[in-house]
Input
Amino acid sequence: MQQLTITRPDDWHLHLRDGKLLETTVPASAQTFKRAVVMPNLMPPVTTVDMALAYRQRIIEALPAALTFEPLMALYLTAETSADEVKKAAQHPHIIGFKLYPSGATTNSAAGIKSVEALAPVLEVMQEQQVPLLVHGEVTDADIDIFDREKVFIDRHLLPITTQFPQLRLVLEHITTGDAVDFVNGSNDNVAATITPQHLLMNRNDLLVGGVKPHNYCLPILKRREHQLRLQQAALSGSSKFFLGTDSAPHVKANKETACGCAGCYSAPAALELYAEFFDQHKALDKLENFASVNGAAFYGFERNQQTVTLIRKPWSLPASLDTADGVIVPYYAGQSLQWQMTKHR
Ligand SMILES: NC(=O)N[C@@H](CC(=O)O)C(=O)O
Ligand SMILES: [Zn+2]
Ligand SMILES: [Zn+2]
Output
Protein backbone atom coordinates (compact mmCIF):
# COMPACT_ATOMS: atom_id res chain seq x y z
CA MET A 1 0.00 0.00 0.00
CA GLN A 2 1.34 3.42 -0.96
CA GLN A 3 -1.55 5.65 0.03
CA LEU A 4 -4.24 5.55 2.69
CA THR A 5 -7.26 7.81 3.06
CA ILE A 6 -9.14 7.72 6.35
CA THR A 7 -11.77 9.73 8.17
CA ARG A 8 -10.15 12.79 9.74
CA PRO A 9 -8.98 11.72 13.23
CA ASP A 10 -9.50 13.22 16.70
CA ASP A 11 -7.01 13.48 19.56
CA TRP A 12 -8.70 12.45 22.80
CA HIS A 13 -5.83 13.59 25.07
CA LEU A 14 -3.80 16.71 24.31
CA HIS A 15 -1.81 19.40 26.11
CA LEU A 16 -1.75 22.71 24.23
CA ARG A 17 -0.33 24.85 27.08
CA ASP A 18 -1.13 28.58 26.98
CA GLY A 19 0.07 32.03 25.95
CA LYS A 20 2.29 32.50 22.91
CA LEU A 21 3.05 28.77 22.70
CA LEU A 22 -0.51 28.26 21.42
CA GLU A 23 0.72 29.74 18.13
CA THR A 24 2.86 26.61 17.77
CA THR A 25 0.75 23.93 19.41
CA VAL A 26 -2.69 24.78 18.02
CA PRO A 27 -1.75 24.68 14.30
CA ALA A 28 0.38 21.57 14.89
CA SER A 29 -2.64 19.61 16.15
CA ALA A 30 -5.31 21.30 14.03
CA GLN A 31 -3.51 20.45 10.79
CA THR A 32 -4.41 16.82 11.49
CA PHE A 33 -7.12 16.51 14.11
CA LYS A 34 -10.68 17.79 13.90
CA ARG A 35 -11.40 17.55 17.62
CA ALA A 36 -9.14 17.36 20.63
CA VAL A 37 -9.68 16.91 24.33
CA VAL A 38 -7.62 19.74 25.83
CA MET A 39 -6.07 19.00 29.19
CA PRO A 40 -6.52 21.52 32.03
CA ASN A 41 -3.15 21.27 33.83
CA LEU A 42 -2.20 24.91 33.38
CA MET A 43 -0.90 27.13 36.16
CA PRO A 44 -3.34 27.87 37.71
CA PRO A 45 -5.39 24.81 36.74
CA VAL A 46 -8.57 25.14 34.68
CA THR A 47 -11.09 24.23 37.36
CA THR A 48 -14.31 25.94 36.26
CA VAL A 49 -16.51 26.14 33.18
CA ASP A 50 -15.81 29.87 32.90
CA MET A 51 -12.04 29.37 33.02
CA ALA A 52 -12.27 26.62 30.40
CA LEU A 53 -14.33 28.78 28.06
CA ALA A 54 -11.82 31.63 28.38
CA TYR A 55 -8.97 29.18 27.67
CA ARG A 56 -10.90 27.79 24.72
CA GLN A 57 -11.22 31.31 23.33
CA ARG A 58 -7.44 31.79 23.51
CA ILE A 59 -7.02 28.50 21.62
CA ILE A 60 -9.47 29.59 18.91
CA GLU A 61 -7.60 32.89 18.55
CA ALA A 62 -4.40 30.95 17.79
CA LEU A 63 -6.10 28.89 15.09
CA PRO A 64 -5.14 29.75 11.48
CA ALA A 65 -8.20 30.68 9.43
CA ALA A 66 -7.66 27.83 6.98
CA LEU A 67 -8.01 25.12 9.64
CA THR A 68 -11.10 23.78 11.37
CA PHE A 69 -10.57 22.56 14.91
CA GLU A 70 -12.87 21.88 17.81
CA PRO A 71 -11.28 22.03 21.27
CA LEU A 72 -13.23 19.97 23.82
CA MET A 73 -12.29 21.23 27.24
CA ALA A 74 -11.53 19.01 30.24
CA LEU A 75 -11.94 20.60 33.67
CA TYR A 76 -9.48 19.93 36.47
CA LEU A 77 -11.15 18.01 39.27
CA THR A 78 -10.25 19.18 42.76
CA ALA A 79 -11.49 18.46 46.28
CA GLU A 80 -13.52 21.67 45.92
CA THR A 81 -15.33 20.75 42.68
CA SER A 82 -19.04 21.24 43.41
CA ALA A 83 -22.12 19.38 42.22
CA ASP A 84 -23.27 22.65 40.65
CA GLU A 85 -20.08 22.92 38.57
CA VAL A 86 -20.60 19.35 37.35
CA LYS A 87 -24.18 20.19 36.37
CA LYS A 88 -23.02 23.36 34.63
CA ALA A 89 -20.36 21.37 32.75
CA ALA A 90 -22.96 18.80 31.72
CA GLN A 91 -24.98 21.54 30.00
CA HIS A 92 -22.09 22.96 28.03
CA PRO A 93 -21.25 21.45 24.62
CA HIS A 94 -17.63 22.69 24.75
CA ILE A 95 -16.88 20.89 28.03
CA ILE A 96 -16.08 17.19 27.68
CA GLY A 97 -15.59 16.09 31.30
CA PHE A 98 -13.43 16.28 34.41
CA LYS A 99 -9.82 15.18 34.70
CA LEU A 100 -8.64 13.45 37.84
CA TYR A 101 -4.99 14.09 38.64
CA PRO A 102 -3.72 12.43 41.81
CA SER A 103 -1.88 15.20 43.63
CA GLY A 104 1.80 15.12 42.69
CA ALA A 105 1.45 12.43 39.99
CA THR A 106 2.53 14.51 37.01
CA THR A 107 3.15 17.97 35.50
CA ASN A 108 1.13 20.67 37.30
CA SER A 109 -0.81 18.23 39.45
CA ALA A 110 -0.20 19.88 42.84
CA ALA A 111 -3.84 20.99 42.96
CA GLY A 112 -4.99 17.43 42.28
CA ILE A 113 -6.77 14.85 44.39
CA LYS A 114 -5.37 13.66 47.72
CA SER A 115 -8.27 11.35 48.60
CA VAL A 116 -10.02 9.50 45.79
CA GLU A 117 -12.52 8.09 48.31
CA ALA A 118 -13.66 11.60 49.22
CA LEU A 119 -14.76 12.12 45.59
CA ALA A 120 -17.74 9.78 45.93
CA PRO A 121 -20.41 12.52 46.15
CA VAL A 122 -19.09 14.33 43.05
CA LEU A 123 -18.68 11.06 41.12
CA GLU A 124 -22.30 10.29 41.96
CA VAL A 125 -23.34 13.54 40.25
CA MET A 126 -21.05 12.89 37.29
CA GLN A 127 -22.62 9.46 36.87
CA GLU A 128 -26.11 10.91 37.07
CA GLN A 129 -25.29 13.74 34.64
CA GLN A 130 -23.32 11.42 32.34
CA VAL A 131 -20.23 13.65 32.55
CA PRO A 132 -17.11 11.59 31.75
CA LEU A 133 -14.27 11.18 34.25
CA LEU A 134 -10.82 11.20 32.63
CA VAL A 135 -8.12 9.68 34.80
CA HIS A 136 -4.37 9.96 35.18
CA GLY A 137 -4.16 6.55 36.83
CA GLU A 138 -1.12 6.47 39.08
CA VAL A 139 -0.75 6.41 42.85
CA THR A 140 1.90 8.73 44.26
CA ASP A 141 2.86 6.99 47.51
CA ALA A 142 6.61 7.16 48.03
CA ASP A 143 6.71 3.45 48.90
CA ILE A 144 5.16 2.37 45.57
CA ASP A 145 7.68 1.77 42.81
CA ILE A 146 7.22 4.11 39.84
CA PHE A 147 6.75 1.12 37.50
CA ASP A 148 3.89 -0.24 39.67
CA ARG A 149 1.97 2.99 40.14
CA GLU A 150 -0.62 2.37 37.43
CA LYS A 151 -1.45 -1.17 38.56
CA VAL A 152 -1.78 -0.09 42.19
CA PHE A 153 -4.06 2.80 41.19
CA ILE A 154 -6.31 0.39 39.29
CA ASP A 155 -6.51 -2.05 42.21
CA ARG A 156 -6.95 0.56 44.91
CA HIS A 157 -9.14 3.12 43.18
CA LEU A 158 -10.49 2.22 39.75
CA LEU A 159 -11.96 -1.18 40.56
CA PRO A 160 -13.85 0.29 43.55
CA ILE A 161 -15.03 3.30 41.48
CA THR A 162 -16.35 1.17 38.61
CA THR A 163 -18.07 -1.15 41.11
CA GLN A 164 -19.69 1.73 42.99
CA PHE A 165 -20.54 3.78 39.87
CA PRO A 166 -21.15 1.31 37.03
CA GLN A 167 -22.83 3.93 34.84
CA LEU A 168 -20.00 6.46 35.20
CA ARG A 169 -18.27 7.14 31.87
CA LEU A 170 -14.56 6.68 32.57
CA VAL A 171 -11.49 7.00 30.35
CA LEU A 172 -8.22 5.70 31.71
CA GLU A 173 -5.75 7.99 29.97
CA HIS A 174 -2.40 7.08 28.43
CA ILE A 175 -2.39 3.44 29.54
CA THR A 176 1.00 1.77 29.92
CA THR A 177 0.49 -1.75 31.30
CA GLY A 178 -1.13 -5.09 30.61
CA ASP A 179 -2.93 -4.52 33.91
CA ALA A 180 -4.65 -1.46 32.43
CA VAL A 181 -5.60 -3.41 29.29
CA ASP A 182 -7.12 -6.13 31.51
CA PHE A 183 -8.97 -3.55 33.60
CA VAL A 184 -10.50 -1.89 30.53
CA ASN A 185 -11.41 -5.18 28.85
CA GLY A 186 -12.88 -6.47 32.11
CA SER A 187 -15.06 -3.39 32.61
CA ASN A 188 -18.38 -2.57 30.99
CA ASP A 189 -18.86 -0.34 27.93
CA ASN A 190 -18.68 2.82 30.05
CA VAL A 191 -14.93 2.30 30.46
CA ALA A 192 -12.36 2.99 27.74
CA ALA A 193 -8.71 4.01 27.38
CA THR A 194 -6.43 6.20 25.31
CA ILE A 195 -3.03 4.99 24.09
CA THR A 196 -0.12 7.28 23.14
CA PRO A 197 2.29 6.76 20.23
CA GLN A 198 5.29 6.52 22.55
CA HIS A 199 3.76 3.68 24.59
CA LEU A 200 3.07 1.73 21.37
CA LEU A 201 6.46 2.38 19.77
CA MET A 202 8.72 2.19 22.81
CA ASN A 203 9.46 0.50 26.10
CA ARG A 204 11.75 1.45 28.97
CA ASN A 205 14.85 0.30 27.13
CA ASP A 206 14.25 3.25 24.79
CA LEU A 207 14.43 5.50 27.83
CA LEU A 208 17.38 4.01 29.65
CA VAL A 209 19.66 1.79 27.52
CA GLY A 210 22.80 3.42 26.17
CA GLY A 211 22.26 6.62 28.15
CA VAL A 212 19.17 8.35 29.47
CA LYS A 213 16.90 9.74 26.74
CA PRO A 214 15.02 12.64 28.29
CA HIS A 215 12.81 13.19 25.25
CA ASN A 216 11.34 9.71 25.74
CA TYR A 217 10.51 10.49 29.36
CA CYS A 218 6.82 10.87 30.01
CA LEU A 219 4.36 9.82 32.66
CA PRO A 220 3.19 7.22 33.24
CA ILE A 221 6.75 6.10 32.56
CA LEU A 222 7.51 3.68 29.70
CA LYS A 223 7.23 0.12 31.00
CA ARG A 224 8.95 -3.17 30.22
CA ARG A 225 8.55 -4.74 26.77
CA GLU A 226 5.90 -7.27 27.83
CA HIS A 227 3.60 -4.38 28.77
CA GLN A 228 4.33 -2.64 25.46
CA LEU A 229 3.29 -5.86 23.70
CA ARG A 230 -0.01 -5.94 25.63
CA LEU A 231 -0.75 -2.32 24.60
CA GLN A 232 0.11 -3.15 21.00
CA GLN A 233 -2.27 -6.13 21.11
CA ALA A 234 -5.02 -3.92 22.52
CA ALA A 235 -4.60 -1.35 19.74
CA LEU A 236 -4.37 -4.07 17.08
CA SER A 237 -7.34 -6.01 18.47
CA GLY A 238 -9.80 -3.59 16.93
CA SER A 239 -11.66 -3.29 20.24
CA SER A 240 -13.65 -0.05 20.33
CA LYS A 241 -12.54 0.48 23.96
CA PHE A 242 -9.11 1.70 22.86
CA PHE A 243 -8.50 4.88 20.92
CA LEU A 244 -6.04 7.58 19.99
CA GLY A 245 -4.89 10.09 22.61
CA THR A 246 -1.45 11.45 21.87
CA ASP A 247 -0.76 13.05 25.27
CA SER A 248 1.39 15.44 23.24
CA ALA A 249 2.93 17.50 26.06
CA PRO A 250 5.56 20.08 25.09
CA HIS A 251 8.29 21.23 27.44
CA VAL A 252 11.15 23.44 26.30
CA LYS A 253 14.49 21.72 25.69
CA ALA A 254 16.06 23.44 28.69
CA ASN A 255 13.47 21.83 30.98
CA LYS A 256 13.91 18.37 29.43
CA GLU A 257 17.71 18.22 29.18
CA THR A 258 18.52 19.12 32.76
CA ALA A 259 19.23 17.66 36.19
CA CYS A 260 15.52 17.29 37.00
CA GLY A 261 13.76 17.00 33.67
CA CYS A 262 10.07 17.43 32.96
CA ALA A 263 7.84 14.55 31.85
CA GLY A 264 6.10 14.79 28.49
CA CYS A 265 6.70 14.07 24.79
CA TYR A 266 5.82 16.67 22.16
CA SER A 267 4.38 14.34 19.53
CA ALA A 268 1.91 16.70 17.82
CA PRO A 269 4.15 17.55 14.81
CA ALA A 270 3.96 13.92 13.62
CA ALA A 271 1.09 12.49 15.65
CA LEU A 272 -0.86 10.57 13.03
CA GLU A 273 2.31 9.57 11.21
CA LEU A 274 3.69 8.01 14.42
CA TYR A 275 0.57 5.89 14.85
CA ALA A 276 0.72 4.96 11.13
CA GLU A 277 4.31 3.83 11.69
CA PHE A 278 3.17 1.53 14.49
CA PHE A 279 0.22 0.03 12.60
CA ASP A 280 2.35 -0.40 9.47
CA GLN A 281 5.09 -2.18 11.46
CA HIS A 282 2.41 -4.68 12.41
CA LYS A 283 0.93 -4.91 8.89
CA ALA A 284 -2.30 -3.57 10.27
CA LEU A 285 -2.81 -0.19 8.59
CA ASP A 286 -6.41 -1.27 8.06
CA LYS A 287 -6.88 -0.89 11.84
CA LEU A 288 -5.66 2.71 11.94
CA GLU A 289 -8.95 4.37 11.00
CA ASN A 290 -11.10 2.86 13.74
CA PHE A 291 -8.43 3.53 16.34
CA ALA A 292 -7.77 7.12 15.24
CA SER A 293 -11.11 8.32 13.87
CA VAL A 294 -14.00 6.10 14.94
CA ASN A 295 -13.73 4.52 18.41
CA GLY A 296 -13.20 7.70 20.42
CA ALA A 297 -16.03 9.61 18.74
CA ALA A 298 -18.35 6.67 19.34
CA PHE A 299 -17.40 6.47 23.02
CA TYR A 300 -18.01 10.17 23.57
CA GLY A 301 -21.23 10.13 21.55
CA PHE A 302 -20.11 12.26 18.60
CA GLU A 303 -20.74 11.85 14.91
CA ARG A 304 -17.84 10.64 12.86
CA ASN A 305 -15.96 13.49 11.12
CA GLN A 306 -16.97 14.27 7.55
CA GLN A 307 -13.54 15.15 6.23
CA THR A 308 -10.74 12.76 5.35
CA VAL A 309 -6.96 12.84 5.57
CA THR A 310 -4.57 11.06 3.26
CA LEU A 311 -1.28 9.45 4.19
CA ILE A 312 1.29 8.62 1.55
CA ARG A 313 4.29 6.34 1.89
CA LYS A 314 7.17 8.76 1.55
CA PRO A 315 9.92 8.60 4.16
CA TRP A 316 10.81 11.82 5.97
CA SER A 317 12.62 12.84 9.12
CA LEU A 318 11.46 14.90 12.04
CA PRO A 319 13.45 18.08 12.67
CA ALA A 320 16.00 18.01 15.49
CA SER A 321 14.27 20.92 17.18
CA LEU A 322 11.64 23.60 16.73
CA ASP A 323 11.85 27.28 17.59
CA THR A 324 8.86 28.52 19.54
CA ALA A 325 7.86 31.63 21.45
CA ASP A 326 8.80 29.84 24.69
CA GLY A 327 12.18 28.66 23.39
CA VAL A 328 13.52 25.59 21.61
CA ILE A 329 11.40 22.44 21.81
CA VAL A 330 12.69 19.03 20.77
CA PRO A 331 9.82 17.04 19.29
CA TYR A 332 9.26 13.39 20.10
CA TYR A 333 11.15 11.22 17.55
CA ALA A 334 13.40 14.17 16.65
CA GLY A 335 15.81 13.35 13.84
CA GLN A 336 14.28 9.90 13.33
CA SER A 337 12.57 8.89 10.15
CA LEU A 338 8.97 7.92 9.53
CA GLN A 339 7.58 6.05 6.54
CA TRP A 340 4.29 7.90 6.17
CA GLN A 341 3.40 11.51 5.57
CA MET A 342 0.09 13.24 5.74
CA THR A 343 -0.76 15.27 2.65
CA LYS A 344 -2.30 18.64 3.33
CA HIS A 345 -5.31 17.95 1.14
CA ARG A 346 -8.56 16.80 2.57
N1 LIG B 1 2.33 12.86 30.22
C1 LIG B 1 3.31 13.61 30.69
O1 LIG B 1 4.41 13.09 30.89
N2 LIG B 1 3.15 14.93 30.96
C2 LIG B 1 1.94 15.69 30.88
C3 LIG B 1 1.01 15.43 32.01
C4 LIG B 1 0.27 14.11 31.95
O2 LIG B 1 -0.44 13.83 31.00
O3 LIG B 1 0.38 13.32 32.90
C5 LIG B 1 2.30 17.17 30.86
O4 LIG B 1 1.40 18.01 31.02
O5 LIG B 1 3.48 17.50 30.67
ZN1 LIG C 1 -1.36 12.20 32.73
ZN1 LIG D 1 -1.46 14.18 29.45
Summary: DSSP finds twelve helices and 13 strands in the chain. Residues 9-309 form a domain with the TIM Barrel fold (CATH 3.20.20.140). The chain has one domain: 9-309.
